[in-house]
Design goal:
- This protein is an alpha+beta fold.
- The protein has 14 helices and 22 strands.
- A 7-stranded mixed sheet has the order 13-14-17-12-20-18-19.
- Helix 4 runs parallel beside helix 7 and helix 4 packs parallel to helix 14.
- The two termini are about 50 Å apart.
């Protein structure tokens, strides 16, 4: 066989060594790896914090010749030819934008319509929510360029590896401005401070290639043929009609769109949902717990993350969208709601750590909503968001309870400071949640407390309501063709259609659906 020109190794080092390129090279020399192999490249970095002392695992590709790939693949997006076939994409979140990029690769002209504003204008509307309690129903944390993930932690990992080539999404994001570390880190993220620029770069490339991106342009109708079996385009709030196959990528909160489709007889289904609270702790406490050290993370480790998954009464109870060094934000999309979510900047340097902590719910789990049919889980979601709002003073001030008080059925006499700008007030979550949620949250937290000492102590609080974890409906589609099971040229894609959860999986779903359409087009 002979000696291979490349070799992959795992190098386990201290956090101090793992944080320094020169120290990593020194370690490789010390262990003799650079005697036969003169070149190296780090291809994966992960932190092993399962026990003390914490270690950093590095996957390293060694090479004798140095001719291994040193740069990520870049896609060539060329201007479309005159007369390119239109494809209509509703929504400029990751599913819609990545579908648009794929369309250009395939020689199709994407016309992307987005009900919200461009990412810069959207930022001003988001600031007004926390500062003034002013809510723009079309431009907020849920609606606008980039979708719900733009002002979040910008996580770029997904549990599902069956959706497609995750590396492709990461390389595209890198091509449009994300740091190369997202190609190496086991848990890559971009951060709410850097993601908007990347989103703008993608939009500008689509326009540069003669595609269209139209903001503050709301779809109000789906145009069907006389038999209702083929989508011919969409109708806008202005009355304008845009013709072409329709890719619906509206995100998890477009309830008006769901109701419009339901009223037109388009088949949709109720889908399982997770609902709960957002937990918040001092980040230094989480560092001490996760890194098994009274000194916390020290100089060389990042703000610690956590992930908890348990079962209670046959349903999952788990942490969701953990934001180290982040803040809790009011993720409402209209008046009369209390909805919270998490967000963090790329440095993750804030005082607090927060995470969703939610209970898995199936249709039928909470009685009283079955008569809503396919809208059952969406109406449940709406009812709880309204209840949490009505419990307060009519503002975005959120119900809160110390974790140990909740576990012990006590009302919190006082509350600690919080990152949630609109403020919090003491509440009883047992009175706000159905018992199917509160009892399972309590059992799950008790299990965490036994494993992670201090996590369920007096410093941690819970805020509600965390309800926008995913879409409450699924729009059924053919597994291979990826179009609606009853309507041709209608492609439900991304998180809002019930087929993704997060930036990466949504982007993959958008690209895969556009490719499926092109394949059918090519086959006649």
């Amino acid at each position: 066989m002979g000696n291979p020109s490349t070799k992959e190794i795992i190098l386990t080092v201290t956090p101090e060594i793992g944080a320094s390129q020169s120290l990593i090279e020194e370690e490789l020399k010390k262990r003799g790896f650079l005697e036969e192999y003169k070149y190296y490249r780090i291809i994966r970095r992960s932190i092993d914090a399962r026990r003390a002392p914490v270690r950093v695992n590095l996957s390293i590709l060694l090479s004798k010749t140095g001719d291994f790939i040193t740069e990520p693949n870049e896609r060539a997006y060329k201007p479309l030819e005159d007369g390119a076939r239109n494809v209509v994409i509703v929504g400029a979140g990751p599913a819609g934008l990545f579908a648009g990029l794929k369309a250009i690769e395939l020689g199709l002209k994407p016309i992307i319509v987005e009900r919200g504003k461009d990412v810069d204008s959207r930022k001003l509307d988001i600031a007004a929510i926390s500062r003034e309690g002013k809510i723009n129903g079309e431009s907020n944390y849920c609606f606008g360029e980039g979708g719900a993930g733009t002002y979040s932690d910008g996580k770029l990992y997904t549990r599902s590896k069956k959706r497609g080539d995750i590396r492709e999404v990461l390389e595209i994001l890198h091509q449009f401005g994300a740091g190369e570390d997202i190609l190496i880190e086991a848990h890559p993220h971009i951060g709410s401070d850097k993601l908007p620029k990347i989103i703008k770069n993608i939009r500008n490339k689509i326009i540069e290639c003669r595609g269209e991106v139209r903001f503050e342009t709301k779809m109000t109708g789906l145009l069907l043929d006389e038999e209702g079996k083929r989508a011919e385009g969409i109708e806008l709030a202005s009355g304008e009609k845009i013709y072409g196959p329709v890719f619906l990528a509206t995100g998890h909160s477009a309830r008006d769109t769901v109701r419009m489709l339901h009223s037109k007889g388009v088949g949709i289904e109720a889908k399982g949902l997770a609902i709960g609270v957002r937990l918040e702790h001092p980040q230094e406490l989480i560092d001490r717990i996760q890194y098994h050290s009274p000194k916390g993370r020290g100089q060389y480790l990042p703000a610690a993350e956590y992930s908890f998954v348990d079962q209670s009464e046959g349903r999952g109870v788990y942490s969701f969208c953990m934001c180290p060094g982040g803040v809790i934000v009011p993720a409402v999309s209209s008046e009369g709601q209390i909805v919270v979510n998490g967000m963090s900047a790329s440095a993750r340097s804030g005082r607090w750590a927060n995470s969703g902590y939610v209970v898995e719910l199936h249709p039928g789990d909470i009685k009283g909503f079955e008569e809503e049919g396919p809208l059952e889980m969406m109406v449940l979601q709406e009812a709880l968001e309204k209840k949490f709002h009505e419990e307060g003073d009519g503002s975005l001030n959120a119900p809160a309870q110390r974790i140990d008080d909740f576990i012990n059925h006590r009302i919190s006499k006082d509350l600690p400071s919080t990152s949630y700008a609109p403020g919090i007030h003491s509440s009883d979550f047992d009175s706000l949640f159905p018992k199917e949620i509160s009892n399972r949250l309590r059992e799950g937290l008790q299990k965490i407390g036994k494993r992670s000492r201090g996590f369920t102590g007096h410093e941690g609080i819970m805020l509600g309501l965390e309800s926008r974890t995913s879409s409450p409906v699924r729009i059924p589609r053919d597994k291979e063709k990826r179009r609606h099971i009853e309507i041709e040229d209608f492609y439900p894609v991304g998180e809002g259609a019930g087929y993704a959860g997060g930036i990466v999986s949504s982007a993959l779903d958008g690209m895969n659906s556009m490719e499926a359409y092109y394949k059918q087009l090519s086959n006649g």
